[in-house]
Amino acid sequence: MVPVVHIKTWTDKLIYRFFEAPKGLDFACNYYPYEKGSDHMWYERTTKKHLSMLFSRFADKSLPVLDIGCGKGFVLYWLNKLGFSRVDGIECDQAMVAVANRNLAVAGLADQSKVFHVDARAFSGYDDYQVIYMFHPFKERIMRDVVKRLEESLTRAPRQFVVVYFYPVEHRVFDESDLFLLREKHVMYFINTVMDAYYYEFDPAHTARRGGRFRDLLEREMQEGNAK
Ligand SMILES: C[S@@+](CC[C@H](N)C(=O)[O-])C[C@H]1O[C@@H](n2cnc3c(N)ncnc32)[C@H](O)[C@@H]1O
After folding, report:
1. For the chain, which residues make up each domain, given as ranges?
2. Is 195 in the pocket of ligand 1 (CB under 6 A)?
3. 164 CA distance to ligand 1 centroid (A)?
């Protein structure tokens, strides 16, 4: 049997050739700028279908969204189409930043969405966002630094905050954090392959109102909710 990844790679090449290239767009094809064994993951985009499902839970589309490791900018493009009013991205590979900026210009979104060329560990603008999206962008070592940056941001500027982590290989880093609580697991499929998404939340109002450790409170609530 042909492995699912090969089916996806070939489908993406066809999508690029017949639907994107004629319009001057370039999102679908994978791109591998890193050495084997690198802590950075290669570029592979989230599909339209998965993004639409992942973001259907957000009624408020004015929440500012940041895609950490945005690659060629497909998440920015598609969330704009879904009606989100502010979606930006950060990306550490210069060639992909150039492709993302070209895609946004072709799609008429250059004034709406920004792509920051920076490593997620060094980004200084996290305070401006309330929803973080990640599709397995890097391995544990980098994730630990990035989660620290997010914790610093939430301590400095407490706010409602959701992390949508698709294909959450390094979820342990969030599980170990005192600030983030795993609110929901969403199981999706690509053909016969399971593609999970974990939703982590931080809610300062909840903590202030009820007292106690945010993580413990919500964990208890989840269990009580599940028991009903
Ligand atoms: C699996 S792709 C996801 C692309 C996009 N978020 C999507 O879902 O369509 C991961 C991306 O993370 C980027 N990346 C890896 N390490 C990074 C880092 N330390 N800082 C910023 N971007 C990074 C890669 O270059 C790649 O474009």
Report:
1. 1-30, 47-227
2. no
3. 14
Tens of pLDDT, residue by residue over 102-123, are: 999 999 999 999 999 999 999 9
Kindly report the number of other CB atoms within 10 A of residue 107's CB atom: 20
CATH fold of 47-227 reads: Rossmann fold (3.40.50)
Condensed to tens digits (0 to 9), the pLDDT of residues 160-218 reads 999 999 999 999 999 999 899 999 999 988 777 888 999 999 988 765 555 556 666 66
Q: 135 forms bridges with which residues in the sheet?
A: 166
**CA–CA separation, 2 vs 179, rounded Å?**
42
Report phi then psi at 107, rounded to 5.
Answer: -80, 0
Classify each residue of 56-85 as buried b or exposed e, where b means 16 or more C-beta atoms within 10 Å of its C-beta.
eebeeeebebbbbbbbbbbbbbbbbeeebe
Check if 90 has its Cβ closer than 6 Å to any atom of ligand 1: yes
Q: Is the CB of 135 under 6 A from ligand 1?
A: yes
